[in-house]
Amino acid sequence: MPLTMDKAALDAFLVEQFPQVAEEFVIDAVEENALKLRLVVSERHLRPGGTVSGPAMFGLADVGVYLAILAMIGPRALAVTTNCSIDFLRKPAAERDLLAEVRLLKLGRLLATGDVLLHSVGRDAPVARATLTYAIPPA
Amino acid sequence: MPLTMDKAALDAFLVEQFPQVAEEFVIDAVEENALKLRLVVSERHLRPGGTVSGPAMFGLADVGVYLAILAMIGPRALAVTTNCSIDFLRKPAAERDLLAEVRLLKLGRLLATGDVLLHSVGRDAPVARATLTYAIPPA
Amino acid sequence: MPLTMDKAALDAFLVEQFPQVAEEFVIDAVEENALKLRLVVSERHLRPGGTVSGPAMFGLADVGVYLAILAMIGPRALAVTTNCSIDFLRKPAAERDLLAEVRLLKLGRLLATGDVLLHSVGRDAPVARATLTYAIPPA
Amino acid sequence: MPLTMDKAALDAFLVEQFPQVAEEFVIDAVEENALKLRLVVSERHLRPGGTVSGPAMFGLADVGVYLAILAMIGPRALAVTTNCSIDFLRKPAAERDLLAEVRLLKLGRLLATGDVLLHSVGRDAPVARATLTYAIPPA
């Protein structure tokens, strides 16, 4: 199954549909059933001790899976997250961006599920992992 | 097991430790192993279609369980979330605050787990549910 | 929304559709959006140390939510679990049956989600909690 | 960090500690922070329609992560599962064994977390994914 939206199309969609958060995210790569999304970490994402906040990590994983799905099926702004499980494994490095590596495990007619590994750019050990399921509205 | 921190103590802790987000949250009630936390919904929490964003709901549940634990064991700013599962069930009402009803299911020496139901104020049907586990640092 | 299947109808369904496991389970109560299911604990459910095995607890929660859904929508043997999160909180008492208290949080056209608290009969503290989502096939 | 238990040591541990289930499982491979465990599917694991039951898949993932942890830290029969999230993605092939590919994401002093992909032997598409966290007792 080929890509329906390439990186340029996803970039444009992000700016148009999510103007509040588009500037925080950079799509680093997109291919069939996989996508890399980077959170440009700034003051607003930090918590006491200099760590990236849980909601910021959740949001990165959530947007990453969403864009990976749209890359395959095209722009449907109404796909909604139905479930997320997330494990926080290590403290992220505060002075580094956070990279989400997304892999779609299922892209069904009604439900899509993606796995995400998050790590600080330049570090191997994952700081978190997440799985998200989206309900896909009829085309 | 009696409360170690009452509502006034938790209010003060929130302002001191989380100045970035303290104004978004109101502690509506606290008792043994239970707490009600309200998200004062404003423009920054909304997404296209007027719905409250996923990260905002995650953050509400996360802070709610954290405060419920601190109410029991006292202020330990370094307790960290290790795991969260969250199910998004219905679209929240955009023009209403979001209420998290937290119940601690376990308060162990090393791990604490809390359940959360989220609903729009004045509406019965839950918009989300979440369970969060925290690792508790040695006293 | 009234019940579509009462306790007698669910009992019969369980025996007919799940002969391998029907004898392990007793439906203790059923009402709108809620059900109590008991696991009759025997040797086969135990693990070293006399505790009830994780798969046995998972199965109890899974069947409990399934029956709670069927009680509302009628017999559809093809509803399938899409997601489960489960937290193991305390060691169950080996010499006691395990009771699952199920509450449906959402019963949509395509997805249904139920929450479960598990505890040893006669003990208050929960040994586990779980949330399960089922995909419902078209009627 | 080298392996503390090799395949032969894990095989022996499984037989000794879990005689009830040891014959159902085959360790196909073990290396640092990774393990492949196979469920020898038989009648007892099947459900109506010929699919492998949810509890059987949960049990496979649970034992797989447990053995992957023990391979690293040595035999500690008292490590306990604290949390599992599992997504059921596709119907497994009933006539084929089920393979769990386990990868440890974190091996801390108190908590260890592993990711699992399950697929029917000879098929690429995953039938389920799971993440499990274990609490590790003091050495």
From TrEMBL, chains A, B, C, D:
Protein name: Uncharacterized domain 1-containing protein
Domain of life: Bacteria
InterPro entries documented for this protein: HotDog_dom_sf (IPR029069), Thioestr_dom (IPR006683)
CDD domains in UniProt: PaaI_thioesterase (cd03443)
Coiled-coil annotated residue ranges, if any: none
Gene Ontology molecular function terms on file: thiolester hydrolase activity
Organism: Poseidonocella pacifica
Residue ranges occupied by any Thioesterase domain in the UniProt entry: 49-121
